[in-house]
Every structure is written in structure tokens, then in C-alpha cells.
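Figure 3 (text version): C-alpha cells given as input.
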């Protein structure tokens, strides 16, 4: 379970940030706003999920990282509030609903939520926190969510809001029981995974709305996105190992190189080949398999790399298991690359 959740968390963070970066390259009305939303979601959740991954992979476990987990929750509480404020502006832009009463209602609830989060009574940085303040600070957040669900539902005929109201509803339905009962029934905390899936699907739906066509220019934009993600991976490797004063070799050092070569270069080559191909859409399926394999392969590298840094010589997880999942990623990646280039070759010679 440690490996599964760690891989899930890393894949989630990589995907939502990548979607956000990709949307920043789009020129459609509202795309950049949604991109900022996705990046805010990923970076904010990173403050909470990366410490969880570290806790899973280090001998001290969650008890040794109670303070940083608490502060991560503090950051996420603020960034999630901002995420929904940005979603309101997305709703306002796409629906042309310029009712200022709604705007100030969202602003007021967001300010109240952040104000409650900032109060010292929350006992941030402690293992237990303050149960009642955990409820207080989530009341305005829940009201925000209900309002956005209702407003999105009323505009569900607009393609930009298709399924959004359902996904936002699910995110809160999974989140509320955790707030209320996780202290007494720790197993309830498992609902945070489907809640995270709901957020991932929100970003996915927004991405598909703005990036609906598959063409050569899309491949080029994806290449730029992968390039940026590779550079982010390099920064993470440098800062993470520096923080732990870790000087030995680690898989984290391979992340940016693999992302740049197997990701950016391969995707760019496919773009150059696709420029003169009429039926570019025939490349979509193998390209998606390639991207799936790339994401899963890089996620495995990140998890293995973090484990190598924080394990302190202990066998916290079964290394053969993570090596096995890494092998699956390599297989999917290889199938995608070979299929993609063979398909491109066949399309070239047939034209």
C-alpha cells in the first residue's frame, strides 16, 4: 500500500501540473486561467502529498513527520480555497454570469475560510491539531463548494461545465467524512484518494475542453510542456537532495535526463514527422500509450529516488516491488514509442 499510494500521489502531482503548464500555451479564452488553476492545485497539494510520500518511504513514518504534514495541510487549505476562487472566475467567464453578488459572496467566504485557517487555535505543526477548528474552517469552504455546484449545475448545458458539478460534489462528499470522522475512524482517511481522483478529473475535463483536437501543433505544445516538466524535475532533484544533504547517486538524478530525452526529444521528433502527415489523428492512440508509459516510468523514478534519499539504510519497502512497477512503466513506454514510430512510418510511405 505504501508503494501504491506513493505512486498514485506522484502521478497525480505530475499530471495536474503538466496539464496546467500545457494550458498556459493555449490561446483560447479561459485556457490560461484554467492552467493557473491546475498548477495551483498541484503545487498546493504537493506541500501535503510529498510529505506523505516521504512518510511512507522513511523509517520514522508518519509520526516522525507529523509537524511537516500539519503545515502541508495548512498550505493546502489556503491553495484549495484559491483554487475554487479561480474556478468561480472560470465559471463567470465561460457562463457570462456577471452577477457581482455571487462574486462578493465567493470572495467573502474565501476570506473567512483563509482567516480561520490562519488562526493559531488550529494548532498547526502538531500531531493532533484542533478537531473543532478543523470543522469551523471547513464550513465556509463547504458553502463555497455547494454554491459552485449549484451554479455549475444550472449551466451544465454549456460544454465548459459538463460534469463539473458532479466532480465538485464528489470531491466534497469524499472530503467531509474525513474532516468529521478521521480522528475516530482512521480508515476514513482512505477517502482522500477518490477525492484526489475527483480533482484530477476536474482538471482533465477542463483540459479536454480547451485541447480537443489532436494535430501537429498539439504535439509541439506537448513537447514544450514535457521540456518544462523535465526542468522542474531537475530543480526538485537538486533541492531535495540538498535539503537532506544527500550526496550519493539516486534515481532522482535520472528524472530530468529521462524526461528531456525520452519525453521532450521523442515528442519533438514525432512533431517533426507529423508536420507532413495528413492523417495525424492515426497517431493519437500510440501517442497516448507513450505518454502513459512516460508518466508512469518517471513517477517510479521519483518514488525510488525519494526512497533512496530518506530510507536511512532501512528496508522500509520491498525494493523488488517498486522495481517491478518500474518495469511495467518501461514496457508500456517502449510499446508506445515503437508503435508510434512504426505508425508514422507507415503513414509516410502510404502518402
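Below: residues designed for each position.
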Amino acid at each position: 500500500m505504501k508503494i501504491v499510494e506513493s505512486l498514485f500521489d506522484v502521478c497525480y502531482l505530475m499530471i495536474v501540473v503538466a496539464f496546467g503548464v500545457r494550458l498556459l500555451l493555449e490561446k483560447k479564452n479561459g485556457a490560461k486561467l484554467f492552467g493557473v488553476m491546475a498548477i495551483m492545485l498541484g503545487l498546493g497539494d504537493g506541500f501535503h502529498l510529498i510529505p506523505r510520500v516521504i512518510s511512507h518511504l522513511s523509517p520514522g513514518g508518519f509520526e516522525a513527520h507529523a509537524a511537516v504534514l500539519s503545515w502541508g495541510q495548512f498550505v493546502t487549505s489556503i491553495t484549495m480555497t484559491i483554487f475554487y476562487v479561480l474556478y468561480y472566475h472560470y465559471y463567470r467567464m465561460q457562463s457570462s454570469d456577471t452577477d457581482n453578488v455571487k462574486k462578493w459572496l465567493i470572495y467573502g467566504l474565501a476570506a473567512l475560510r483563509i482567516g480561520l485557517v490562519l488562526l493559531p487555535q488550529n494548532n498547526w505543526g502538531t500531531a493532533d491539531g484542533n478537531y473543532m477548528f478543523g470543522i469551523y474552517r471547513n464550513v465556509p469552504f463547504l458553502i463555497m463548494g455547494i454554491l459552485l455546484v449549484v451554479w455549475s449545475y444550472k449551466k451544465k448545458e454549456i460544454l465548459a461545465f459538463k460534469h463539473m458539478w458532479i466532480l465538485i460534489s464528489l470531491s466534497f462528499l469524499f472530503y467531509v467524512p474525513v474532516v468529521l470522522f478521521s480522528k475516530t475512524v482512521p480508515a476514513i482517511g482512505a477517502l482522500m484518494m477518490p477525492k484526489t481522483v475527483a480533482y484530477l478529473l476536474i482538471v482533465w475535463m477542463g483540459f479536454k475542453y480547451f485541447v480537443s483536437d489532436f494535430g501537429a501543433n498539439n504535439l509541439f505544445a506537448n513537447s514544450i510542456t514535457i521540456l518544462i516538466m523535465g526542468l522542474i524535475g531537475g530543480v526538485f532533484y537538486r533541492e531535495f537532495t540538498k535539503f537532506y544533504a544527500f550526496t550519493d547517486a539516486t534515481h532522482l538524478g535520472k528524472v530530468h535526463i529521462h524526461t528531456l530525452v525520452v519525453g521532450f526529444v521523442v515528442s519533438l521528433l514525432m512533431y517533426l514527422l507529423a508536420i507532413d502527415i495528413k492523417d495525424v489523428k492515426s497517431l493519437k492512440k500510440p501517442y497516448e500509450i507513450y505518454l502513459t508509459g512516460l508518466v508512469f516510468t518517471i513517477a517510479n523514478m521519483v518514488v525510488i529516488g525519494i526512497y533512496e534519499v530518506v530510507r536511512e539504510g532501512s528496508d522500509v519497502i520491498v525494493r523488488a516491488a517498486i522495481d517491478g512497477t518500474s518495469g511495467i512503466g518501461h514496457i508500456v513506454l517502449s510499446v508506445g514509442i515503437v508503435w508510434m514510430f512504426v505508425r508514422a512510418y507507415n503513414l509516410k510511405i502510404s502518402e
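The chain has a mean pLDDT of 92.
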